Automatic annotation (TrEMBL):
It comes from the Bacteria. InterPro entries: Homeodomain-like_sf, HTH_TetR, Tet_transcr_reg_TetR-rel_C_sf. One of its GO terms (molecular function) is DNA binding. The keyword Transcription applies. This is TetR family transcriptional regulator. Residues 8-68 form the HTH tetR-type domain. Residues 31-50 bind DNA. Keywords: DNA-binding, Transcription, Transcription regulation. Pfam families: TetR_N.
Length: 203
């Protein structure tokens, strides 16, 4: 990212403020005035530091992935439970804690942005940024399930990719439910049903 000189504000705080605004309102529903107000800067500072609304959005989704997604992915890959369901449960419950937390706008920023990709509300470079993050998530889950199959924790009659797509679909479903004000308890029940697949197919 190209940053303007003599910046009179904290860049990371500004990106986080923009992230929450985009998360709450979406790319299409967020104006430059919304961004400058939430970030506490003027338009010249925004353009000087981020060049465009699109570039700022890309910074925001990457910030979200780094702050919220990456630590949870690492916790899954380093989980010590003896079975697949036991490893997935805290990973999914952490997601529910975030997407139902009243401190946050509701739902998942990446899931919300993926919906904007599908209705063609995002510019091309922003679409690429969102798709890369989703592909990264699928790749991580596929690697996780490949390891589980290799270690004999899951039946190898299904592919790691199938399991990864299943969990990704579950994550997006949870995010949509949270966005529509379902309680954490109801989402936890969905997780238990989702994990039943792995308890059934675990070895």
């Amino acid at each position: 990212m190209s940053v303007g000189r003599n910046r009179g504000f904290d860049l990371s705080r500004a990106v986080e403020a923009a992230m929450f605004t985009f998360w709450r309102q979406g790319f299409h529903g967020t104006s430059l005035s919304d961004l400058t107000k939430s970030m506490g800067i003027n338009k010249s500072s925004l353009y000087g530091s981020f060049k465009s609304k699109e570039s700022l959005f890309i910074e925001a989704v990457n910030h979200y992935a780094f702050i919220y997604g990456q630590p949870n992915r690492e916790s899954l890959l380093n989980a010590k439970a003896s079975n697949t369901a036991g490893k997935l449960q805290p990973y999914l419950l952490n997601i529910v804690d975030r997407i139902t937390n009243s401190r946050y706008p509701g739902g998942c920023f990446i899931a919300n942005s993926t919906c904007e990709v599908n209705d063609r509300s995002l510019p091309k470079e922003a679409v690429v940024a969102v798709e890369v993050l989703n592909q990264t998530s699928i790749k991580m889950l596929t690697n996780f399930f490949n390891t589980e199959i290799h270690n004999g924790n899951l039946d190898n009659t299904r592919s790691a990719e199938s399991y990864a797509n299943y969990v990704q679909s579950l994550q997006f479903g949870l995010a949509v439910m949270a966005k529509n004000h379902h309680s954490a308890e109801s989402l936890q029940q969905v997780i238990e049903l989702g994990l039943a697949v792995f308890r059934k197919e675990g070895l």
